[in-house]
Amino acid sequence: MFMGYENKQYHNRDISRKTWEKISKERNANITAIKGRWRGLGDKFRKELSKLPKNVQEIKEGPMIKPAWPYYENLLFLKISLLREL
């Protein structure tokens, strides 16, 4: 379950804690390790997203590049939340 900034429950620490505990049990892994992995995936997604053309002029001037990172397409739902950060 991903809660982006637009979710009313996003800042609810109790719900956040329970969600991480649930994921920890499902994955049979330490919460700290899972949070670190999630942060790493988000950072890598941000890096891959930054490689894409930023405006129409860049798109016209060069070939359309699709990131080769295997998780890019699966994490596209993060794009909306990342754009709201800017």
UniProtKB/TrEMBL annotation:
Signal sequence region: none
Annotated ranges, domain MADF: 1-83
InterPro entries from the UniProt entry: MADF-dom (IPR006578), TF_Adf1 (IPR039353)
Any Pfam family the entry gives: MADF_DNA_bdg
Protein name: MADF domain-containing protein
Lineage: Eukaryota, Metazoa, Ecdysozoa, Arthropoda, Hexapoda
